[in-house]
Amino acid sequence: MRGLVLKDVCKSFGDVPVLQDVSLDLDGGELLVLLGPSGCGKSTLLRLIAGLEELDQGEIYIGSKRVDHLRPRDRDVALVFQNYSLYPHMTVAKNLAFPLIVSRVNKSEVRSRVRDVAEMLGLSEKLKAKPAQLSGGQRQRVALGRAIIRKPSLFLFDEPLSNLDADLRGRMRREIVQLQKELGTTTIHVTHDQAEALTMGDRVALLHEGRIVQIGSPEELYHDPVNLLVAEFIGYPKMNVLHARIERHVLIPFGLSMLNRPLHEDKVLVGIRPEQIDITPDGEYAATVASSEYLGGRYVVTLSFNGILLTVSNCKAQLEQGAPANFTFRQQDLLFFDPSTGQRLGTE
Protein backbone atom coordinates (compact mmCIF):
# COMPACT_ATOMS: atom_id res chain seq x y z
CA MET A 1 0.00 0.00 0.00
CA ARG A 2 1.35 3.41 -0.97
CA GLY A 3 1.52 6.12 1.67
CA LEU A 4 2.73 9.12 -0.34
CA VAL A 5 3.75 9.73 -3.94
CA LEU A 6 5.36 12.88 -5.32
CA LYS A 7 5.82 13.20 -9.07
CA ASP A 8 8.19 15.83 -10.50
CA VAL A 9 7.37 18.46 -7.89
CA CYS A 10 8.74 21.94 -8.69
CA LYS A 11 8.54 25.19 -6.75
CA SER A 12 10.10 28.61 -7.27
CA PHE A 13 9.79 31.86 -5.36
CA GLY A 14 10.02 34.55 -8.00
CA ASP A 15 12.99 33.69 -10.20
CA VAL A 16 14.62 31.51 -7.54
CA PRO A 17 14.04 27.74 -7.97
CA VAL A 18 13.62 26.06 -4.58
CA LEU A 19 12.57 22.52 -5.58
CA GLN A 20 13.31 20.89 -8.92
CA ASP A 21 11.70 17.67 -10.16
CA VAL A 22 11.38 16.07 -6.73
CA SER A 23 9.87 12.57 -6.88
CA LEU A 24 9.24 10.22 -3.94
CA ASP A 25 7.31 6.99 -3.42
CA LEU A 26 6.69 6.02 0.23
CA ASP A 27 5.09 2.79 1.37
CA GLY A 28 2.22 2.98 3.84
CA GLY A 29 3.62 3.18 7.37
CA GLU A 30 7.12 4.12 6.23
CA LEU A 31 9.23 6.70 8.07
CA LEU A 32 11.30 8.74 5.62
CA VAL A 33 13.85 11.23 6.92
CA LEU A 34 14.41 14.19 4.63
CA LEU A 35 17.96 15.31 5.31
CA GLY A 36 19.84 18.33 4.06
CA PRO A 37 21.51 21.64 4.95
CA SER A 38 19.57 24.78 5.75
CA GLY A 39 18.03 26.38 2.68
CA CYS A 40 17.91 23.23 0.55
CA GLY A 41 14.09 23.20 0.35
CA LYS A 42 13.13 20.67 3.05
CA SER A 43 10.51 22.78 4.83
CA THR A 44 9.12 24.07 1.54
CA LEU A 45 8.52 20.48 0.43
CA LEU A 46 6.57 19.74 3.63
CA ARG A 47 4.49 22.89 3.14
CA LEU A 48 3.68 21.83 -0.42
CA ILE A 49 2.55 18.39 0.76
CA ALA A 50 0.45 19.98 3.52
CA GLY A 51 -1.07 22.47 1.10
CA LEU A 52 0.39 25.58 2.74
CA GLU A 53 2.18 26.41 -0.52
CA GLU A 54 1.03 25.84 -4.10
CA LEU A 55 2.93 23.71 -6.60
CA ASP A 56 4.35 25.24 -9.74
CA GLN A 57 4.45 21.80 -11.34
CA GLY A 58 3.98 18.15 -10.39
CA GLU A 59 1.54 15.89 -8.59
CA ILE A 60 1.03 14.80 -4.96
CA TYR A 61 -0.84 11.65 -3.92
CA ILE A 62 -1.65 10.56 -0.37
CA GLY A 63 -2.56 6.91 -0.58
CA SER A 64 -4.24 6.58 -3.97
CA LYS A 65 -5.84 10.06 -3.83
CA ARG A 66 -4.40 13.04 -5.66
CA VAL A 67 -4.40 15.97 -3.24
CA ASP A 68 -2.38 18.83 -4.75
CA HIS A 69 -5.60 20.59 -5.75
CA LEU A 70 -7.20 20.22 -2.29
CA ARG A 71 -7.27 22.69 0.60
CA PRO A 72 -4.96 21.89 3.56
CA ARG A 73 -7.80 20.75 5.82
CA ASP A 74 -8.98 18.26 3.17
CA ARG A 75 -5.62 16.48 2.80
CA ASP A 76 -5.73 14.49 6.06
CA VAL A 77 -2.22 15.60 7.03
CA ALA A 78 -0.79 16.59 10.44
CA LEU A 79 2.18 18.97 10.48
CA VAL A 80 4.39 19.39 13.56
CA PHE A 81 6.66 22.47 13.62
CA GLN A 82 9.94 22.97 15.48
CA ASN A 83 8.50 25.78 17.62
CA TYR A 84 5.62 23.56 18.90
CA SER A 85 2.91 26.14 17.96
CA LEU A 86 0.91 25.55 21.14
CA TYR A 87 -1.78 27.92 22.36
CA PRO A 88 -0.26 29.49 25.51
CA HIS A 89 -3.64 30.37 27.11
CA MET A 90 -4.96 26.79 26.79
CA THR A 91 -4.27 23.84 29.07
CA VAL A 92 -2.60 20.70 27.74
CA ALA A 93 -6.02 19.03 27.53
CA LYS A 94 -7.45 21.88 25.47
CA ASN A 95 -4.40 22.03 23.22
CA LEU A 96 -4.79 18.30 22.53
CA ALA A 97 -8.51 18.60 22.00
CA PHE A 98 -8.41 21.63 19.71
CA PRO A 99 -8.11 19.78 16.34
CA LEU A 100 -11.06 17.57 17.28
CA ILE A 101 -13.19 20.50 18.42
CA VAL A 102 -12.54 22.30 15.13
CA SER A 103 -13.60 19.11 13.31
CA ARG A 104 -16.79 19.03 15.43
CA VAL A 105 -16.11 15.67 17.02
CA ASN A 106 -18.62 14.97 19.81
CA LYS A 107 -17.54 15.82 23.36
CA SER A 108 -17.45 12.29 24.74
CA GLU A 109 -15.13 11.12 21.96
CA VAL A 110 -12.93 14.19 22.44
CA ARG A 111 -12.51 13.38 26.14
CA SER A 112 -11.77 9.74 25.37
CA ARG A 113 -9.17 10.50 22.71
CA VAL A 114 -7.48 13.20 24.81
CA ARG A 115 -7.22 10.72 27.68
CA ASP A 116 -5.79 7.99 25.43
CA VAL A 117 -3.23 10.25 23.74
CA ALA A 118 -2.14 11.80 27.04
CA GLU A 119 -1.56 8.32 28.48
CA MET A 120 0.38 7.26 25.38
CA LEU A 121 2.69 10.28 25.67
CA GLY A 122 3.08 10.34 29.45
CA LEU A 123 1.08 13.55 29.83
CA SER A 124 -1.78 12.32 32.00
CA GLU A 125 -0.52 14.26 35.02
CA LYS A 126 -0.11 17.47 32.99
CA LEU A 127 -3.55 17.86 31.41
CA LYS A 128 -4.44 20.91 33.53
CA ALA A 129 -1.07 22.62 33.01
CA LYS A 130 -0.41 25.36 30.47
CA PRO A 131 2.56 25.29 28.04
CA ALA A 132 4.61 27.76 30.11
CA GLN A 133 4.56 25.26 33.00
CA LEU A 134 6.03 22.45 30.86
CA SER A 135 9.57 21.47 29.98
CA GLY A 136 10.72 21.56 26.37
CA GLY A 137 10.27 17.82 26.05
CA GLN A 138 6.75 17.97 27.46
CA ARG A 139 5.80 20.79 25.10
CA GLN A 140 7.08 18.72 22.20
CA ARG A 141 4.98 15.76 23.38
CA VAL A 142 1.90 17.98 23.40
CA ALA A 143 2.66 19.09 19.84
CA LEU A 144 3.03 15.44 18.80
CA GLY A 145 -0.16 14.54 20.66
CA ARG A 146 -2.11 17.21 18.84
CA ALA A 147 -1.00 15.60 15.56
CA ILE A 148 -1.64 12.03 16.72
CA ILE A 149 -5.12 12.73 18.08
CA ARG A 150 -6.45 13.50 14.60
CA LYS A 151 -5.45 10.04 13.32
CA PRO A 152 -4.24 11.48 9.99
CA SER A 153 -3.05 9.55 6.96
CA LEU A 154 0.30 11.37 6.98
CA PHE A 155 2.59 12.92 9.60
CA LEU A 156 4.93 15.75 8.57
CA PHE A 157 7.56 16.64 11.18
CA ASP A 158 9.52 19.84 10.47
CA GLU A 159 12.67 19.66 12.63
CA PRO A 160 10.61 19.05 15.78
CA LEU A 161 13.65 18.30 17.97
CA SER A 162 15.96 21.18 17.08
CA ASN A 163 15.07 23.24 20.17
CA LEU A 164 15.88 20.45 22.63
CA ASP A 165 19.17 19.73 24.38
CA ALA A 166 21.28 16.80 23.18
CA ASP A 167 20.17 14.26 25.82
CA LEU A 168 16.47 15.03 25.45
CA ARG A 169 16.78 15.07 21.67
CA GLY A 170 18.15 11.51 21.78
CA ARG A 171 15.29 10.29 23.97
CA MET A 172 12.66 12.02 21.83
CA ARG A 173 14.12 10.43 18.69
CA ARG A 174 13.52 7.00 20.17
CA GLU A 175 10.03 7.92 21.37
CA ILE A 176 8.97 9.28 17.97
CA VAL A 177 10.19 6.15 16.18
CA GLN A 178 8.41 3.89 18.68
CA LEU A 179 5.17 5.89 18.39
CA GLN A 180 5.35 5.94 14.61
CA LYS A 181 5.75 2.17 14.45
CA GLU A 182 2.90 1.62 16.91
CA LEU A 183 0.57 3.91 14.95
CA GLY A 184 1.72 2.73 11.51
CA THR A 185 1.27 6.21 10.04
CA THR A 186 3.31 7.22 7.00
CA THR A 187 5.75 9.91 8.14
CA ILE A 188 8.24 12.40 6.72
CA HIS A 189 10.67 13.76 9.30
CA VAL A 190 12.75 16.77 8.23
CA THR A 191 16.15 17.42 9.81
CA HIS A 192 19.61 18.81 9.10
CA ASP A 193 21.03 16.48 11.78
CA GLN A 194 22.56 13.33 10.31
CA ALA A 195 22.35 11.52 13.67
CA GLU A 196 18.57 11.89 13.54
CA ALA A 197 18.51 10.69 9.97
CA LEU A 198 20.65 7.59 10.54
CA THR A 199 18.90 6.52 13.75
CA MET A 200 15.29 7.23 12.80
CA GLY A 201 14.65 6.62 9.13
CA ASP A 202 13.52 3.47 7.36
CA ARG A 203 14.97 5.38 4.44
CA VAL A 204 16.81 8.69 4.13
CA ALA A 205 16.51 11.16 1.25
CA LEU A 206 19.36 13.67 0.98
CA LEU A 207 18.16 16.95 -0.50
CA HIS A 208 20.62 19.47 -1.92
CA GLU A 209 19.80 22.69 -3.76
CA GLY A 210 16.23 21.55 -4.33
CA ARG A 211 17.00 18.10 -5.72
CA ILE A 212 17.09 14.66 -4.15
CA VAL A 213 20.67 13.50 -4.53
CA GLN A 214 20.21 10.00 -3.11
CA ILE A 215 17.50 8.03 -1.35
CA GLY A 216 18.00 4.71 0.39
CA SER A 217 18.46 3.04 3.75
CA PRO A 218 20.81 4.76 6.23
CA GLU A 219 23.32 1.98 5.59
CA GLU A 220 23.18 2.56 1.82
CA LEU A 221 23.90 6.26 2.11
CA TYR A 222 26.76 5.59 4.52
CA HIS A 223 28.43 2.65 2.75
CA ASP A 224 27.43 3.29 -0.87
CA PRO A 225 27.19 7.06 -1.53
CA VAL A 226 26.52 8.01 -5.15
CA ASN A 227 28.79 11.03 -5.03
CA LEU A 228 31.17 13.06 -2.90
CA LEU A 229 28.40 15.29 -1.56
CA VAL A 230 26.61 12.34 0.06
CA ALA A 231 29.88 10.79 1.25
CA GLU A 232 30.95 13.97 3.06
CA PHE A 233 27.50 14.82 4.45
CA ILE A 234 26.98 11.41 6.08
CA GLY A 235 29.32 10.33 8.87
CA TYR A 236 31.06 12.07 11.76
CA PRO A 237 33.87 13.02 11.77
CA LYS A 238 33.66 13.75 8.06
CA MET A 239 35.20 11.40 5.53
CA ASN A 240 38.86 11.99 4.70
CA VAL A 241 39.11 13.06 1.06
CA LEU A 242 42.47 13.42 -0.63
CA HIS A 243 43.80 14.06 -4.10
CA ALA A 244 45.57 11.05 -5.56
CA ARG A 245 46.74 9.72 -8.89
CA ILE A 246 47.01 6.36 -10.57
CA GLU A 247 50.28 5.56 -12.33
CA ARG A 248 50.72 2.21 -14.07
CA HIS A 249 47.79 0.79 -12.07
CA VAL A 250 49.32 1.92 -8.75
CA LEU A 251 47.53 4.36 -6.44
CA ILE A 252 49.83 7.16 -5.31
CA PRO A 253 50.52 8.04 -2.45
CA PHE A 254 49.57 4.66 -0.93
CA GLY A 255 51.34 2.39 -3.41
CA LEU A 256 48.30 0.12 -3.80
CA SER A 257 47.66 -1.97 -6.90
CA MET A 258 44.57 -0.87 -8.83
CA LEU A 259 44.51 -3.81 -11.24
CA ASN A 260 41.24 -5.08 -9.74
CA ARG A 261 39.56 -1.64 -9.91
CA PRO A 262 37.80 -0.51 -13.12
CA LEU A 263 39.39 2.96 -12.91
CA HIS A 264 40.77 4.68 -15.99
CA GLU A 265 41.41 8.18 -14.63
CA ASP A 266 44.91 9.46 -13.91
CA LYS A 267 43.70 11.79 -11.14
CA VAL A 268 41.07 10.81 -8.57
CA LEU A 269 39.70 11.84 -5.21
CA VAL A 270 40.04 9.08 -2.62
CA GLY A 271 37.72 8.86 0.38
CA ILE A 272 38.33 6.89 3.58
CA ARG A 273 36.25 7.26 6.73
CA PRO A 274 38.05 8.15 9.99
CA GLU A 275 36.68 5.04 11.73
CA GLN A 276 38.14 2.80 9.01
CA ILE A 277 41.74 3.81 9.72
CA ASP A 278 43.66 1.99 12.45
CA ILE A 279 46.70 3.34 14.26
CA THR A 280 48.87 0.33 15.05
CA PRO A 281 52.61 -0.24 15.65
CA ASP A 282 52.89 -2.51 12.60
CA GLY A 283 50.84 -0.24 10.31
CA GLU A 284 51.95 -0.02 6.67
CA TYR A 285 52.23 3.77 6.57
CA ALA A 286 54.38 6.05 8.72
CA ALA A 287 52.89 9.37 9.81
CA THR A 288 53.21 12.08 12.46
CA VAL A 289 50.56 13.10 14.98
CA ALA A 290 49.35 16.62 14.13
CA SER A 291 46.70 16.85 16.88
CA SER A 292 44.66 14.76 19.31
CA GLU A 293 41.21 15.51 20.78
CA TYR A 294 39.59 13.65 23.67
CA LEU A 295 35.91 12.85 23.15
CA GLY A 296 35.26 10.58 26.11
CA GLY A 297 36.24 6.94 25.67
CA ARG A 298 38.15 7.69 22.47
CA TYR A 299 40.46 10.18 20.83
CA VAL A 300 40.12 11.79 17.43
CA VAL A 301 43.63 12.02 16.05
CA THR A 302 44.84 13.98 13.03
CA LEU A 303 47.81 12.42 11.26
CA SER A 304 50.19 14.12 8.85
CA PHE A 305 51.19 11.77 6.01
CA ASN A 306 53.18 12.98 3.00
CA GLY A 307 51.73 16.47 3.40
CA ILE A 308 48.19 15.07 3.77
CA LEU A 309 46.08 15.39 6.95
CA LEU A 310 44.05 12.29 7.87
CA THR A 311 41.49 12.10 10.68
CA VAL A 312 41.34 8.88 12.73
CA SER A 313 38.41 8.50 15.12
CA ASN A 314 38.84 5.15 16.90
CA CYS A 315 42.05 5.70 18.85
CA LYS A 316 41.81 4.52 22.48
CA ALA A 317 45.03 6.10 23.79
CA GLN A 318 46.25 9.67 23.74
CA LEU A 319 49.06 10.42 21.31
CA GLU A 320 51.40 13.36 21.74
CA GLN A 321 51.61 16.02 19.06
CA GLY A 322 54.64 15.41 16.87
CA ALA A 323 54.95 11.75 17.86
CA PRO A 324 55.40 9.13 15.12
CA ALA A 325 52.41 6.87 14.41
CA ASN A 326 51.89 4.07 11.93
CA PHE A 327 48.47 3.47 10.39
CA THR A 328 46.71 1.03 8.11
CA PHE A 329 43.33 0.51 6.43
CA ARG A 330 41.57 -2.01 4.22
CA GLN A 331 41.80 -1.30 0.52
CA GLN A 332 38.14 -2.27 0.05
CA ASP A 333 37.11 0.63 2.29
CA LEU A 334 38.48 3.22 -0.15
CA LEU A 335 35.94 5.13 -2.23
CA PHE A 336 36.87 6.91 -5.47
CA PHE A 337 35.36 10.07 -6.93
CA ASP A 338 35.76 12.11 -10.08
CA PRO A 339 37.61 15.32 -9.07
CA SER A 340 35.69 17.44 -11.59
CA THR A 341 32.12 16.19 -10.99
CA GLY A 342 32.28 14.51 -7.58
CA GLN A 343 30.56 11.41 -8.99
CA ARG A 344 31.50 8.02 -7.56
CA LEU A 345 33.93 5.98 -9.66
CA GLY A 346 34.60 2.27 -9.94
CA THR A 347 31.11 1.02 -9.09
CA GLU A 348 30.44 -0.77 -12.38
Rg, alpha carbons: 24 Å
Q: Can you tell me the CATH superfamily of the largest domain?
A: P-loop containing nucleotide triphosphate hydrolases
Assign an overall shape. Answer: elongated
What is the CATH first-level class name of the largest domain?
Answer: Alpha Beta
Give the oligomeric state of the chains in this entry, treating copies of one chain as homo and distinct chains as hetero. Answer: single chain
Ends: how far apart? Answer: 33 Å
The total beta strand count reads: 21
State the domain count: 2
- Name the helicity range: 10-25%
The CATH topology annotation of the largest domain reads as Rossmann fold
Strand count, sense and barrel status of the largest sheet are: 6 strands, mixed
Sketch the topology as an H/E string, one letter per element.
EEEHEEEHHHEHEHEEHHEEEEEEEEEEE
CATH architecture of the largest domain: 3-Layer(aba) Sandwich
Main β-sheet, spatial strand arrangement: 6-7-8-3-9-10
Instruction: Identify low-pLDDT runs.
Output: none
Mean pLDDT: 93
User: So how many helices?
Assistant: 8
Short description:
With 348 residues, the protein is of the alpha+beta class.
In words, what does this structure look like?
A hairpin with a 2-residue loop joins strand 17 (299-305) and strand 18 (308-315). This protein has eight helices and 21 strands. The relative contact order is 0.11. 24% of the residues lie in helices and 35% in strands. The protein has two domains: 2-227, P-loop containing nucleotide triphosphate hydrolases (Rossmann fold); 240-345, OB fold (Dihydrolipoamide Acetyltransferase, E2P), CATH 2.40.50. The chain is α+β, with helices and mostly antiparallel strands. The protein has helices spanning 42-50, 92-102, 107-120, 136-148, 166-183, 194-200, 218-223, 228-233, and strands at residues 2-13, 16-27, 31-35, 57-62, 65-66, 77-80, 154-158, 186-191, 203-208, 211-216, 240-247, 250-252, 256-257, 267-272, 277-279, 285-294, 299-305, 308-315, 324-329, 335-337, 344-345. The mean pLDDT is 93. Helix 2 (92-102) packs across helix 3 (107-120) and helix 2 runs parallel beside helix 4 (136-148). The longest helix is centred in the middle third of the chain and has 18 residues, at 166-183. Strands 6-7-8-3-9-10 form a six-stranded mixed beta sheet, sandwiched between helices. Strands 13-12-11-14-20-21 form a six-stranded antiparallel beta sheet. Strands 15-19-16-17-18 form a five-stranded antiparallel beta sheet, with no helix packed on it.
